[in-house]
Structure formats: structure tokens, C-alpha cells
């Protein structure tokens, strides 16, 4: 039977390319018998679902706010930039 | 575009932009720079904003451009020999052999993280993700983020960051193993 190490490669690559028929079949057989590799599949799904959420919405639970000092510096830069913009016009 | 408009963007979307930037560039100065550059670029191109997407989506889109530029620059610098500042640290990322015994079985039982959709919306899970992403080496985290968070296809990643397909697969495998191990060691499952 395929080793867990080999299976983990196929599980990971299955996220990035379409596995060949032979690869899919031998992986299915392994997963049927191996609870740890089934867990690995589930864990990657959870990780992917979380990261897709952030990538698509730009938001996620518990995202930290910008430090006040950063906000103040950026505000000042934007203010200067709009003043200069007006000066050129 | 007026200064008032830009200040409004900063008030409304500053936190979201900063959090997104920090997730990719886990350094307060770089994250702040990225947000500032994004708002300056938005200010300059404000009139070209068609208004179809929400302002938030539009600003995140500009920020993504900035981050992608940063990633490409980093990728070039790390492939240049003798670059002192960006030398990859191989000890930072664990080897895949750390997870498997010599007979190829997992060397520890994997935890049950429950329903993937539920986990994705969980605050603690997210806190750990942020921490584990920041702990990953820059090279691994770049490729992992482009693939899993930005959903770039593998062809685009290979082309834009000059990696071979097989190298990308190996790297993503290591990154995924590393993330799951880090998440469990930090208390998940």
C-alpha cells in the first residue's frame, strides 16, 4: 500500500493539478484505510476555506486594526499629497 | 479628488487594508507603507474608478498590486546569489521528514479540526493562521499565499515568480505540512 508520506504529496498536489486516474485510485484506496490522511484532507480544506475567505473579502474574524500612529502618519501624508496636487493644477 | 475623500477612505477602510497588508508583509513598517502607497495610488486614479465594485474591493485590488510587486522583487532578490539581506533561512521551515517516520507513516496522530467552513469563520483559528503564516520563511509564505489566498493558478505563479512546476508543488507541499503542524502545535485540534 502507498505510504502516508506519498499520499500526502498526492493530497497536496491534488489541490494544484488534476491527478491522473491511477493516482486518484491508489489515493482513494489509501484514504479509505487511513484516518490520519483523511484528517489531512479535512485540515487542508479548512485552511483553504479560511484563506479563500480572506482573499475574496479582505476580511476575516479577529483581524487587527491599524495602529493609531500609522493612521496619523498616513493621514498627514495624504493631506500633504492633496495640497501639492492642488498646487500643480 | 480631495483630501476629504482620501481621509474618508482611511477612516472607512484603513483597518481592513492594514490587516490585509500585514497578513502578507508581517512587518509593521512595510504594512504601513503598503497602505499609504495604496491610498496615494487611489487618490491619483480616483477619477478612473468606475464604481462597479465596492470601494473596499477596489482598494484591496490596488493593495494586491503593491503586494504582488513586493513579492516579485523579493523573488528576484532571493534568486540573486550572495544577497545578504534576503538570504533564505532553511532552518526556519521544517523538513517534510519531521512529519513522517522512516516507514512513511505519520509520526503523530492528526487532529480533528471539525467542519472546514466552521473552522474558517473561527476567531481562534484565524489568530493561529496569522501567527503561523508570519513564522513561515518569506519564500514559502509567498508561494503559499499566492496559491491559497489569492487563488492564482500554478502556471501564473511559475511564470511571475520564476519557479518550475515541480519546485512549486514541492514547496506548496512543505508549506501545507508546515502550516498544519504549526496550527496543531499552537493548540488546534
Describe the protein:
The complex is a heterodimer of chains A (89) and B (189). Chain A has helices at residues 4-13, 21-33, 35-57, 68-88. Chain A is mostly helical and 89 residues long. Chain B has 8 helices and no strands. Chain B has helices at residues 3-24, 28-45, 55-79, 116-120, 123-135, 138-148, 154-161, 165-185. The longest helix of chain B is centred in the middle third of the chain and has 25 residues, at 55-79.
Question: Which key terms come to mind for this protein?
Answer:
heterodimer, A: 89 residues, mainly alpha, B: 189 residues, 8 helices, globular
Oligomer: heterodimer
Which structural class should the secondary elements of chain A be placed in?
mainly alpha
Distance between the termini of chain B: 50 Å
**Which bin fits the share of residues in helices of chain A?**
over 70%
Q: Helical region count of chain B?
A: 8
* pLDDT < 50 stretches of chain B: 82-89
Q: Which shape of chain B, going by the Cα principal axes?
A: globular
Average pLDDT figure of chain B: 86
Distance between the termini of chain A: 73 Å
| Overall morphology of chain A | elongated
Mean pLDDT of chain A: 92
Order of helices and strands of chain A: HHHH
Query: What gyration radius of chain A follows from the Cα positions, in whole Å?
Result: 24 Å
The succession of helices and strands of chain B, N to C, reads: HHHHHHHH
Stretches of chain A where pLDDT is under 50 for at least 5 consecutive residues are none
Number of strands of chain B: 0
Radius of gyration of chain B using CA atoms only = 19 Å
Largest sheet descriptor of chain A: none
Topology:
The complex is a heterodimer of chains A (89) and B (189).
Chain A: H1 4-13, H2 21-33, H3 35-57, H4 68-88
Chain B: H1 3-24, H2 28-45, H3 55-79, H4 116-120, H5 123-135, H6 138-148, H7 154-161, H8 165-185
Helix pairs in contact in B: 1-2, 1-3, 2-3, 6-8
